[in-house]
Amino acid sequence: MRTYKRTFLNKEVGIAAIEVVFDPATNYVSSHATISDCNRNITLDFCSSDKNTFKKNLYKISVLINELSSLETQLLDLSTSHEFKDYFK
Predict the structure, then answer these.
(1) DSSP assignment, residue 81?
(2) What is the C-alpha to C-alpha distance for residues 44 and 47, in angstroms, rounded to an integer?
(3) Distance (Å, rounded) from C-alpha 14 to C-alpha 19?
(4) Domain coordinates of the chain in residue numbers?
(5) What are phi and psi of 27, to 5 degrees?
(6) What is the SS3 string spanning 48-63?
(7) pLDDT band, residue 79 (cuts 50/70/90)
(8) 3-class SS at 88?
(9) DSSP states of 5-40 as a string?
(10) Adjacency order of strands within the sheet including 28-37
(11) Torsion of CA 16, 22, 28, 34, to 10 degrees
């Protein structure tokens, strides 16, 4: 079953978004994520035509999630630090 989801990244007005497409077919899985912000786009392709590529793509997604989660933790730690008020004057 094909799925498509578009989620806007800004809480308020803005066009920044992430679009995810998942389209499994017989002997092939078409899947990708496109992240866009104003006039910049990046598409991450996770298409698979065999089990080995499928497993490699799962690993890539796991690494991306872990690294973004780590960045989020660092930013949250900074936002609650005593020094945070000095960053944006």
Answers:
(1) S
(2) 9
(3) 15
(4) 3-78
(5) 70, 15
(6) ECCHHHHHHHHHHHHH
(7) very high
(8) coil
(9) EEEESSSSS---EEEEEEEEETTEEEEEEEEEETTE
(10) 3-8, 17-25, 28-37, 40-45
(11) 0
Q: Are 47 and 31 in contact (CB under 8 A)?
A: yes
- Distance CA(36)–CA(65), nearest Å, equals 17
What size, in residues, is the chain? 89
Strand partners, 54: none
- Which position has the token pair 């912000």? 37
B/e letters for 39-68, b = 16+ CB within 10 Å, e = fewer, are: eeeeeeebebeeeeeeeebeeeeeeeeeee
- Locate 80 and state its tokens: 């609650």
pLDDT digit string (tens) for 41-63?
A: 999 999 999 999 999 999 999 99
Single pTM value for the model: 0.84
Quick one: tokens of 75? 């930013």
